[in-house]
Amino acid sequence: MPRDRSNDAVEQTPEHEPEPEPERLVRRNPSRRHLLRTGGVVVTAAFASGCDMLSTKPQAKQGGGAGGQSVSAGAKEAPELTRRVRAAQLPPLKQRLPTDPLVVTPQERLGTYGGQWDLFGDSPPAAGGAEVYYEWLVRWSADWKKVIPNVVRSWEIGGGGLRYTFHLRRGMKWSDGKPFTTEDIAFAYDDVVLNNELFSAPPSFFVTADRPARLEVVDEHTFRFVFTKPNGLFLEQLASNGAHVLTICPKHYFSQFHPKYNKNIDELLKKEKTDHWYQLFAQKGGSQGWIGNIWQPEVPLLTAWHTTSVTQQGTRMVLERNPYYWKTDPEGRQLPYLDRIVRHVISDQEAALLRAMDGEFEFLCPTFYNPNLGTPKNKPVLAQNRDRGGYEFVEGLDSTMNKTVIAFNLNHPDRKLREVFLNRDFRIGLSHAINRKEIIAAVYQRQGEPWQAAPRKESEFYLERLATQYTTYDPKLADQHLDRAGYTRRDPQGFRLRPDGKRLTFNVDVITEEPTQIDALQLVRGYWERVGVKMNLYSIDRSLYYTRKEANKHDASVWTGDGGLRDGIVDPRWYFPANNESNFALLWATWYTSRGKSGEKPPEAARRQMSLYDQIGETVDETRRRQLFMEILRIAAEEFWVLGTVLPVGTFGIKRKNFHNVPKSMIASWRYPTPGPTAPEQYFVTS
Question: Which residues fall in a compositionally biased region of kind Basic and acidic residues (predicted)?
Fold first, then answer.
């Protein structure tokens, strides 16, 4: 029988309550095939309530946006919206809300209307977005334990994961007041996702047995995805970063740029001075496919706030409340509480830090959007200025499991070098040669612990052997393993020689945007030289890094260790050759993702992992999925595909003391994505 997951209890505030009965409600030119980019699990820590109770008396906020406004108990909408209704500029609230709005229980207490949220990023695309754009079909609960309703009010799973039937909220509208229906879902999937001029291939979570799901539109508010084989992780993928496309493509807006619907598209292209329709489509929806719509004032959205102005240089963006937003608090008062979000683009990290110390930003969440703010070296100076800046820390449980994962190219085109990297004793020897405790002290301000590329202790997937093996600093043991690998001969400078007589040397690629990784690798280079292995450090920009990787021209590369918590089962890139981010064996990963049509056939151990992961994808039973994934990790421990260095400690953000309904701690993860599941629509500010 199909399972109805719509009324699963949510264990953590802010909660999304079971749906009330309707009658009780009052409430650069992009490339041809990559225009819309997409992406494509248990934390035991509880998240305590947020800040202290503070005064809600309305008075001007010092040094920032106004605080929340005093609103009578009966007011169900922001005062500005009431004024617009009275001026006949908006329909009444009852006509703007769906018949079954989503009810959000605040983290601390009911909020007041008004005020703004100032935040920053180092560039427009990287300036965050999860506080705005996380309005997908379903969402994660705040504790990341389960998938809960969002745009859809309920769903059923049939055929053991073959069919997923979703039910939209009746009367829901885009930010311009136009209806949001299954017609928009069909446009987003059939005309965007499945259009090979926009997507080279559909996101992997829409595909089973090499075939994309079939979309069935049942009626105006009901649709169904039908898969060729069961898709056990479909809901988890829909709740994670990358599944936004189904809720950011209003048909009534984008169809004018699509040749299927606009027979005069050639004339429009001439007018817009654009060569191809897919370029125009992307330009009108944003230059960055996955969050670009947020920065386009013309694009209707389902989000709590939408862009109303952007400076010509893109250094300041203002997002105002959406009058058609489809969520309320338990009193039937329309969310969001905050009037607006103001984004400041600050590329100078020192300037950003100084402004943060002055309390200019209401909330900077603990996440990758501000990677150079929430670092251990900045925490003492931020702590010293808390009283002056009027802010406090928000702790973040980092979902990454390693500061620096070192991935040797096991599929290297140079067969001699490939032979070196494939030798497990070689990798074990180099791991024992790394003084991780010294790296922690010198680079990470004594924050962290020696760790391989393995799930964190907080994860249900924690495996001690995988996490801790070969992390002991022991140069003599390192020498023994390197000798056992066959590299006993040395040149006059003391460096080991390959069987062909050449010095054993290789390059490691690292992106310039990661200064701490560069610092760590400089130490690693010295450790490896002491055991006779020569490593050259290549600090290159991100685009060149990816160009080299995608061409399989890298000797070795480093990256942050994704997949330390629940996200590991969704993106297991470091645990086996799973996808195009598995830098250690891209040809094996290509063989897997292409079902043997390209790439290179991997060894038996990797094929076993691939078979196990296929089984994970075909079951909706979470217990069975965990058992299968633990077996994948046990094989990863045996094979020791990649080297880890340091387990990250928790990250942090800051928030002003008069900014409320923010948890004192939250998960920091791209796939979560922070801070979206904590329901920013219920944040509010007081004076």
Answer: 1-26
Residue 425: strand, helix, or coil: helix
Tokens 């959205």 map to which residue?
301
> Which residues lie below 8 Å from residue 575, measured CB to CB, with a gap of 6+?
453, 563, 568, 609, 632, 633, 636, 641
pLDDT tens-digit readout, 62-78? 333 445 554 444 689 99
Same domain, 428 and 448: yes
238 closest CA partner among 334, 312, 155 = 155
The pTM score is 0.83
Coil vs helix vs strand at 119: strand
User: Rounded to whole angstroms, how far apart are CA atoms 174 and 322?
Assistant: 9
Domain-embedded: residue 88: no
Helix 424-432 vs helix 415-422: crossing angle, to nearest 10: 60
Q: How far is Cα of residue 582 from the mean position of the Cα atoms in its chain?
A: 17
Beta bridge partners of 207: 212
The residues, ordered by sequence, that sit 6+ positions from 590 with a Cβ below 8 Å of its Cβ are: 580, 598, 599, 600
3-state secondary structure of 424: helix
- Give the domain CATH number at 469: 3.10.105.10
674 with 560, same domain: the answer is no
What are the φ/ψ torsions at residue 316 (nearest 5 degrees)?
-150, 130
Contact at 8 Å (CB) between 334 and 27?
Answer: yes
Label residue 387 exposed, middle or buried (CB < 10 Å: 0-12, 13-18, 19+): exposed
Calpha distance 355→359 (Å, rounded): 7
Written as six digits, the tokens of 515 are 């200064």
Q: How far is CA 378 from the centre of its chain?
A: 24
- The encoded tokens of residue 488 equal 């006993």
What total of structural domains would you count in the chain? 2
Domain of 451 in residue numbering reads as 402-647
Buried b (16+ CB within 10 A) or exposed e, 580-604: eebbbbbbbbbbbbeeeeebeebee
User: Phi and psi (nearest 5°) for 457?
Assistant: -65, -30
Nearest CA-CA partner of 27 in 329, 337, 338, 339: 329
Q: Is residue 38 part of a domain?
A: no
Q: How far apart are CA 71 and CA 461, in angstroms?
A: 48
Q: Is residue 92 in a domain?
A: no
At a CB cut-off of 8 Å and minimum separation 6, what does 640 contact? 424, 427, 428, 431, 452, 469, 470
Q: Are residues 365 and 449 in the same domain?
A: no
CA 351 to chain centre: 26
**Integer Cα distance of 587 and 292 in angstroms:** 31
As a residue count, the chain comes to 687
Q: pLDDT, tens digit, for every residue of 189-244?
A: 999 999 999 888 898 899 999 899 999 999 999 999 999 999 999 999 999 987 88
Tokens of 489: 């001969």
Instruction: Let me know whether 475 and 510 are in one domain.
Output: yes
- Spatial distance between the Cα atoms of 673 and 74, rounded to a whole number of angstroms: 34
Report residue 670's pLDDT band, with 50, 70 and 90 as the boundaries: confident
292 and 224 fall within a common domain: yes
Sign of the alpha-carbon torsion through 624, 630, 632, 634: negative
